Give the backbone structure.
Amino acid sequence: MAINPPVDATQTKAWAALQDHFQSLQDEGIDLRAWFANDPQRTEKLSFEAGDLHFDLSKNLIQPETLSLLAQLGREVKLDERIESMFKGEHINNTEDRAVLHTALRMPEEDRGSLVVDGQDVVGDVRDTLKRIYAFADQVRSGEWTGVSGKRITTVVNIGIGGSDLGPVMAYEALKPYADAGISARYVSNIDPNDLAEKTRDLDPETTLFIIVSKTFTTLETLTNARQARSWLLDHLKAQGAVDGSDAQSAEAIRKHFIAVSTALDKVEDFGIDPTNAFGFWNWVGGRYSVDSAVGTSLAITIGPERFEEFLAGFNAIDRYFRDTPLEENVVALMGLLNVWYVNFFGAHSHAVLPYDQYLHRFPAYLQQLTMESNGKSVRWDGTPVTSMTGEIFWGEPGTNGQHAFYQLIHQGTRLIPADFIAFANTPNPAKDEDQDVHELFLANYFAQTKALAFGKTADEVRAEGTDESIVPARVFTGNRPTTSILGDDLTPRSLGELIALYEHITLTEGTVWGVDSFDQWGVELGKKLAKEITPAISQDDQALAAQDQSTRSLIEFYRAHRH
Ligand SMILES: O=P(O)(O)OC[C@H]1O[C@H](O)[C@H](O)[C@@H](O)[C@@H]1O
C-alpha cells in the first residue's frame, strides 16, 4: 500500500530553528542553576500531568521555548498525521504492509464495532479473545482447571522470547503484589538449556502449566524449549506415577498442562496443543507491543482478569491523551521530541531509565527491545537512507543499585546521558528502620540524584568544605546533566499500563522524526539464518565447516577440539 514518504526532519524550518536555538544556548552557556534562579516559574512551566502520572521536565537542558520548537518540528514532520494513521489502522508498518494497532488491544467493550480495519471488527475480536482468556484464567485461579492428576495449578511457566517474554516477565515482576491466587509465574526464554533446566528443577509437573507464546510459532528458541518442556513434563509425570506413558494419557497430559498464544493457531495444533486452549492475536500487533494482548495470559492468570482490565485501562488512558492533546502540551510526544533534541543536537548516544522501584527491575530490559528494535534503523520507510542519527541505547537498573555502580559516569563522565527517573509515592511494603520510614529514605535518594545531576557542586563549594586544593577538581560536579522525573501514586496495574504506553508512544514519536518504520525488525533476520546454516558445521559436517569464513571456522574448530 502506498504510504507518504517521510518528511526529512533535517530540512524543516523547525530543525534550522532548533539548530540556531541550540547554538544560542551554547553561546550564552547552558546553566540550570541560572535558569532556575532567573525563572521562579520554570518548574511549573515545564511540569505536566498525563493519566495518573506527573512529569517534571524542568531539569532538562531546555527552555520553555525549546519545547515549542520541538512541537513545531513534530508538526512539520506530520507527527499528528502519523498518530492518526496508526490509531485508524492504516498500514504504517509499510515494509511488512501491516496496520499497527496495539492501541486497539486496550479499547474498552463499548468501542466494539467502532474500528473496522481490513474488514475486521478489531475491537470485537480483541474483546472476544479477552473473554476467552479471562474464562480460562478464572478456571485456573479457582482450581477448577487442574493438571492431569487432578491437582490445582500453582506455577505457570511462560515459554517465549523477545516480545513474547520481555513484556510479560517485566509486568509480572512489577505486579507481584497483585498475584493473589497462590499462582506464581516463571519465564523461560533462552535456548541455552540452562534456562529451562534451572526454571523447572524444583517444579512439580502435576501442578505446572506451560504457556507457549510465539507470535509466529516458528521461533527456534521457543519451539525447542517447548519440545524440551513437553519431554520434561511427560518424563516426570511418568516417574511420579501420574501417567502410565500410554499415548492417550500423554495426549491428555499435554492438553491439561500446555496452552498456547500465537497468531498462527494452525501451527499450535500441530504441536499437540488443543486449539480450545490457544489464544490468538493478530499480525497488526508487533511482538514488542504485545504484552497487553493474549501474550499477557500469564499475567491474566496470576493477577486475575479484573486487574488485567485495569492494566489495559491504564494503556488506554495514555493512548487517548496522546491522540487528543495538542503537541505543544502533549508530554508523551514532547518526551519523544526531547530525546531527538539530545540525540541529534547534543549528540547523546544513550538514555538511562532508572526506576526507583524494585518491582520495575526488568523495565529497562523491556524498554531495550521496545525502543532499540523499533528505532535502530539506517533507512527510512521509503527505503532511502536516514538523514540523521537514529535510535538511542536504552539501559538502566533500579535505583539505588545503579547509584553504587554506574552513576559515577553519569555525574562526572565526559558523556551526556539523559536519564528518566521513575518513582511512586507509596510502597506496598512499608518498613521502619528505627524511626526512619525506609521508603522515604529511598525516595530521598531519588530526589537527591536529579538535584545533584542538575545543579552539581562548584569548586568553591568543594573548597568551602575544607577540601585540599589538590583534590578539588576531582570533587567538582559540573551539573547540567539532564533528567526527567516521573512520579505516580502507586505502582498498580493501571499505572504500569500508563508507563508502558508512554514509552510506546515516545518510540513512535522519535521514529516519525527519523522517518523510520518503528514496527519492523529486519535486522534480526540475518543472524537467525546464519545460525541455521552453521548448525551442521558445528556438529560434524566438515564440508559445511570448510564453507565458513576463516574466523568463524577457527572458532568452531576450537569448540570441536574442546567439547567433551
Ligand atoms: O513471538 P515470536 O514470533 O516467537 O517472536 C519472538 C521475537 O523474535 C524475533 O526475532 C523478533 O526480533 C522479536 O520482535 C520477536 O518478539
